[in-house]
Design brief:
The chain is built from twelve helices and no strands.
């Protein structure tokens, strides 16, 4: 199995026990059953952007999402509860995200862009919608942990996602996409989609940060200076 080989690469082939205190902070203790997710589509989310995303992309597509639905719900719950940390995603080839961008904001942005992409390029996009949403929403979850781990954010992300995606038929597609999307030319279709969406989201956030930084400069739109200038030059 691909994930097993990846674990061996990180931790070695010997059996090792990792103390719970080193892994406990990787988890958000909120389990959501498939039945609960389907029966309560209008959830009380703490953040408005999560609420809007769920209503636009998840609730209308619960039937198409199938077994991916509860997993997506769990990932959104994690982002809603703990996603205010910086989106520290390992990708040396891309522009660094502004420190003000949270993991929640970045992940939602990547997912929105990816869904728009597959809607335009795939006739039966709903067949891969669940898989793509899990990949895009969950590919940066490792940033939730401050622990130092061989493999960095990517390794921690797979450790967090593993129990959630264990029974999904496309588990290996998810693992492969997250493992390889940072390559120059990823081969897997899902990895290509994640890479394109991630690049677009990064570019958008960097450009937005530049614009707002210019607007927030003291010499830009200084109302006091404008009023003073008008008062000193009466008609």
């Amino acid at each position: 199995m691909l994930l097993s080989r990846f674990r061996q690469k990180i931790f070695g082939t010997g059996r090792k026990e990792i103390p719970l205190n080193l892994l406990s902070h990787l988890w958000v203790e909120k389990e959501v059953s498939e039945k609960a997710a389907l029966q309560h589509p209008a959830n009380d989310w703490a953040h408005q952007d999560i609420h809007q995303f769920y209503n636009q992309y998840i609730a209308p597509n619960m039937t198409a999402l199938g077994t991916a639905g509860p997993v997506i719900h769990q990932i959104l719950a994690i982002l809603d509860n703990a996603g205010d940390c910086a989106a520290d995603i390992d990708d040396s080839e891309e522009e660094k995200l502004p420190v003000s961008v949270t993991l929640r904001e970045y992940s939602l942005s990547v997912a929105r862009i990816a869904v728009d992409m597959i809607k335009k390029t795939h006739r039966d996009y709903d067949m891969i919608l669940g898989k793509i949403l899990i990949i895009c929403l969950g590919h940066g979850l490792g940033a939730l942990s401050s622990s130092v781990t061989i493999g960095g954010v990517l390794a921690k992300t797979l450790l967090i996602l593993d129990p959630m995606i264990q029974d999904l038929p496309f588990k290996q597609d998810i693992v492969l996409a997250i493992l390889t999307f940072g390559e120059n030319h990823p081969k897997a279709e899902a990895a290509k989609i994640l890479k394109a969406a991630s690049c677009a989201a990064r570019k958008k956030e960097v450009e937005s940060a530049q614009v707002f930084s210019e607007i927030s400069r003291p010499d830009v739109l200084d109302i006091k200076k404008i009023r003073a200038a008008i008062q000193s030059n009466p008609e």
